[in-house]
Amino acid sequence: MKNKSLLQQNTSLKYFLFLSFVWMFLLNACEMDYGKKPEETKELMATVSANKAVAGGDMLTFIDMSLGVEKRTWIFPGGEPATSEKAEVGVVFKQEGNIAPSLVVEYFDGSKETKTFPLKIFPVLVANFTPSKTRIKVGETVTFTDASIGGATAWSWTFEGGTPATSTDRNPTVKFDVNKPVGISLKITRAEDGSIASIVKNALVQVGPPELMYNGSFEDGLITDIQTWNGSGFPLVVVSGGANGTKYAAAFDYNNWGGAELMSRDKPAEKRIAVENGKSYTVSMWVKADKPGVITIGWFQLGNNNLSPWSYNSVWGTNGQVLTTEWQKVSFKADIPNDGKSRLNNYHSFWFTKVVGDATVNTRVYIDELSLKIVD
After folding, report:
1. CB-CB contact of 128 with 198 (8 Å)
2. Of the candidates 67, 93, 121, which is a domain's last residue?
3. Both 267 and 357 in a single domain?
């Protein structure tokens, strides 16, 4: 029994020695495969989300995945934040140019290692331009000069009422044949980083003389400055379907007599239209009627309407154009005499008369795009 016990002891000792040998072999194998024990591993591994950004705009994310780090220090020249000790940090750079943020890591053994991240920070792209003129006659040209900042490489223009209507030139020249204020838009692109910026300048260039009429197109769906007069108040209403494809027009029911008027007399001083003595004006509007050939534009007046005492000081004109069921433009030219009379509170009107003597005429009359412009 004693010999058997010794045998068992010897067997246990041999088994323990075998396990120890296997454990040491495995440890040596790990060192052969991986170079060092886990608690002694150190390696600098770090990255950034992109190598370019726009100053003050894009945020770049820096991530440190290094092994064996006791301490880390990020340095971001011109960045917010300027430094950090976090493993992951988002940074916005305020200064444009070529910069090199860096990461310094201190390992568990006291050694240090540094990595830099070369970046290009672009300036903010801002679209802008200037016109050579802001007031031109119909048919004249304007040159638009690019005043954008940030290094644009491509330009896309749109010109309301212009020829050409679009352009990709940096500084295009455009002809305008419309008679109204026109808007211009510009979109710019920077190829290197894909940045895009745009700007719209509405009513930038006044083509032809400026419009003096208020609420003459009715496109706000309201009637604020125009009225009719037929002895019973102001029955002018807004209706759908204006001249030249516009959304709205104004209308009134003609019952043997009536007219359409603008009276800026009753408006605040800043909205009153002052007709200047010694100047000429073009007065126009688009008209039609439900019944063709029964009424005409009989006459018009342009001048001043003061109450108490009444004082018109008006210039009168005649036309005689017969209304049809189709929109047609009616125009008058008024030469205001230089006679010293006051014409500071403008009043002008179009009056409609019957084509046939004493016959009773009932029809709806439509007016749109009323215009009052000084002749250049």
Report:
1. no
2. 121
3. yes
Would you place residue 278 in the very low, low, confident or very high pLDDT band (cuts 50, 70, 90)? very high
- Tell me: do 192 and 296 sit in the same domain: no
Residues 131/205, Cβ–Cβ less than 8 Å: yes
CATH (domain of 293): 2.60.120.260
Which residue in the block uniquely carries the two structure tokens 């040159």?
Answer: 143
Give the global pTM: 0.65
> How much is the pLDDT for 27?
42
Q: State the pLDDT at residue 259.
A: 74
Same domain, 369 and 232: yes
Residues 138, 155 contacting (CB under 8 angstroms): no
* Contact between residue 54 and residue 122 where contact means Cβ atoms under 8 Å apart: yes
Q: Report the pLDDT value the prediction gives residue 155, as an integer from 0 to 100.
A: 98
If you average pLDDT over residues 353-366, what whole number do you get? 85
Q: What is the pLDDT of residues 301-314, one digit of tens each?
A: 787 766 555 667 78
Torsions phi, psi for 22 (to 5 deg): -60, -45
Tokens of 218: 């009715």
Q: Which amino acid is at 301?
A: Q
Over residues 213-223, the pLDDT tens digits come to 778 888 999 88
Domain range for 191 is 129-207
Is 232's pLDDT higher than 70?
no
Average pLDDT rounded to a whole number, residues 278-283: 90
Domain final position from 121, 150, 184: 121
Query: Does 363 share its domain with 238?
Result: yes
Please, what is the end-to-end C-alpha distance for the chain in angstroms?
135
The letter for the amino acid at 230 is: N
- The owner of tokens 């009444």 is 310
Tally the domains of the chain: 3
CATH of the domain at 100: 2.60.40.10
CA distances from 114 to 45, 53, 90, 107, 266 (A): 10, 23, 19, 11, 79
Do 248 and 363 lie in a common domain? Answer: yes
Backbone angles phi and psi of 272, in degrees to 5: -80, 145
Does 349 score more than 60 pLDDT? yes
